[in-house]
Amino acid sequence: MTYHPFTITILRWFSENRRNLPWRETNDPYAIWLSEIILQQTRIQQGTAYWERFMERFPTVEALAAASEDEVLRLWQGLGYYSRARNLHKAAKQIVEAGRFPDTLEGIKRLKGVGDYTAAAIGSIAFGLPAAAVDGNVYRVLARYFGMDTPINTTEGKKVFTSLAQELLPKDEASAFNQALMDFGAMQCTPSSPRCMTCPLTETCEALRTGKVEQLPVKKRTLKIQTRRLTYLYIRCKGQTAIHRREAGDIWQGLWEPVDMEQVQLSVPEGELKLVCQNVKHVLTHRILLADCYLWETTERPSLPDTYVWVDEDSLDRYALPRLIERLIPLCRSQVLP
Length: 338
Fold this sequence. Notes:
Blueprint: H1 5-17, H2 29-38, H3 44-57, H4 61-66, H5 69-76, H6 83-98, H7 105-109, H8 116-127, H9 136-146, H10 155-168, H11 174-187, H12 206-210, E1 226-236, E2 240-245, E3 256-257, E4 259-260, E5 273-283, E6 287-297, E7 308-312, H13 323-333
Parallel strand pairs: 1-6
Antiparallel strand pairs: 1-4, 2-3, 2-7, 5-6
């Protein structure tokens, strides 16, 4: 079979420059699936450390399925996008219930939290399925090399780029090709300051020829970033504090936080409320959070909704907390009131 010159060059580059990643040392679909879920919206260096911790704590899909959601969320803590962790846990249960890891694209797509890209990546790498995996790296490489200005975050863009990637895919080397494009985009054809002068595609790259490397790929303007304010009350009562689990339908579903002063109205005696920090900034995908946090030290537990539980301050690290709350709690605990 004759391959496109682009495909031949990319595969040759990969054979000489591939990254040594631990999940590439196995054909275990569980390990490969876990890596793909963790690496969604996560840098490879950070993701590798989390993958290793997950594999150590949950070496099999059965072990992951048997864990509690709290255990999974605690281990995920710090990665953000916690719906990924909840979907990972639900998908593990799906796999165990089915009796084996699905080995078709359709079966893999039925797993909770798995979309087209992830299914193609897992299918090609674990089972050799001839499916092109198109992620941000692939969009960028193809857009620049072929000079494509169709916005990548549109339905048309996804269709056009996926179709092209599938045409370029060598059916008997799908795993190598998909991983090659991922590595090439991450190491050579980077978002900013790409290494064009040492690129093996220099002579035939359309973006380099037309001076459009920095303009491609094109993204359609998306939603405006919104700012949201949060106000917390950290109550200290005889070495304990009150926390509650956030409900569905909002950020941080299933994670724990101190008293939300927007939701709970408390009467605090004058002079007992201390502002610990103000306008602590935390950035999410489509919004910026600004948090204020107050400390109230009291000898009597105030009346709180039934959703709140009292826990020892020293045991807070046993609960899955959003990264913002992780930052606020040490500030509160370090306060010594007269």
